[in-house]
Amino acid sequence: MPFDRPDTLRQLGASWTGAALAGVLLISLACGKEDVNPWQVRRPAGVSPTSFELRFVLEQEEPGAVELPGPDGKPLRLAAKPLAVRTDVAKVEVERDLIQVYEERQQDAASVMPRTPPHYVVLVTLTPDAAQGLSQATQAKYGRRLAIVVDGRILMAPVLNASLPADRAMMIQGSFTREAAIRLAERLAP
């Protein structure tokens, strides 16, 4: 559940519509198996868990609303009650950014431009109850923004283009290096 154009997908991977799912499937097929296999990450002993919340971004004041700086530094007002928290996380995985892999393959066929360093994404799977609750909460919320908050910082706040399906992992994208994606995944892991 991660998340109309590749740059929009990079912001969170906004919402997965049928077209986006088909696009990712095509990207997966074009990339080859070696590039697209996610691996599960567990939290090592001694690594403190991070705080993790999913909250709607509000357009107007609401009792108990929380205000945090957005990814661009401008303050965003968030709903008082989170839709999901860290204890709702069932599994965390890391994989190569499929959009980047696809773009590299296209670029390789067209030119000899140097590649950018590989980017990785973090896939967060919620428990069945939390995933179902999030799916229901995001129904008919098209055009609303959903903030992903980690350690009190909004990592991204994409616009919902569809309800988030209960049977898909959420994708957190941010031009992560492999090491940065693994560090985040370790801290989010149950």
**How is the quaternary structure best described?**
single chain
By CATH, the topology is: Gyrase A, domain 2
Shape designation? globular
Helix content: 25-40%
Strand-pairing-aware structural class? alpha+beta
Secondary-structure element order, as H and E?
HHHEEEEEEHEHEEEH
Integer-rounded radius of gyration: 17 Å
Number of helices: 6
Mean pLDDT: 79
Structural notes for this entry:
- The chain is of the alpha+beta class.
- The relative contact order is 0.26.
- α2 (18-31) packs across α4.
- The strands form 3 sheets. It has a 4-stranded antiparallel beta sheet with strand order 1-6-7-10. A 4-stranded antiparallel beta sheet has the order 5-2-8-9. A two-stranded antiparallel sheet has the order 3-4.
- The longest helix is centred in the N-terminal third of the chain and has 14 residues, at 18-31.
- The chain has a single domain (6-188), classed as Gyrase A, domain 2 (2-Layer Sandwich), CATH 3.30.1360.
- It has helices at 6-11, 18-31, 33-36, 98-110, 128-138, 178-188; strands at 39-40, 52-56, 66-69, 75-78, 84-85, 89-96, 120-126, 146-150, 153-156, 170-176.
- The model is unreliable at 1-35 (pLDDT under 50).
